[in-house]
Amino acid sequence: xxxxxxxxxxxxEIDDFRFNTMLIEIDQITQAKDFARDVHKxxxxxxTPIPYIAHPMRVYHRAKKRGLSKTHxxxxxxHDTYEDAKxxxxxxxxxxxxxxxxxxxxxxxxxxxxxxxxxxxxxxxxNKSKIGFEVKLLDMExxxxxxxxxxxxxxxxxxxxxxxxxxxxxxKNVAEKLFKLAGxxx
Length: 186
Hints:
Helix content is 74%, strand content 0%. By secondary structure, the chain is mostly helical. It has a single domain (2-181), classed as Orthogonal Bundle (Hypothetical protein af1432), CATH 1.10.3210.10. The longest helix is centred in the N-terminal third of the chain and has 39 residues, at 2-40. It is globular.
């Protein structure tokens, strides 16, 4: 009898822990959405009346739909915040405070310095951070799904070929989808 009571109490504690852990994860996602909305406020998708926040939210939904980790999901939401912020240093500091060093470092790694060749940036990212690279591929997929220009399609096609030619493994299904979106017959 006592053993059954102890088992029941332990089971209830485990359930409470799981529930509280889930709330923390959900809360972080909500915080990330709010943070990204603030950073991207007043920004629009190129040549459209669509608020920019739609892009990171679609990348987030792609990560979530594929069952990727909460880290992937947070990074998907926050991936352009540093690049697009009015005050990048302040933004990075805030990301560290709210989401921790790991997420802040991933956001920084994922950010493309416009002075660095795009293909070289992708190669470095692929070699430096698996999570960052996976989110970047989701970002590219979303960009290619959103009425890309021929120039953007070609840029992504060349970048993907460059990565593959330099030994970077991209999941076959992901690569096929990206090449198809870029207008390449696979």
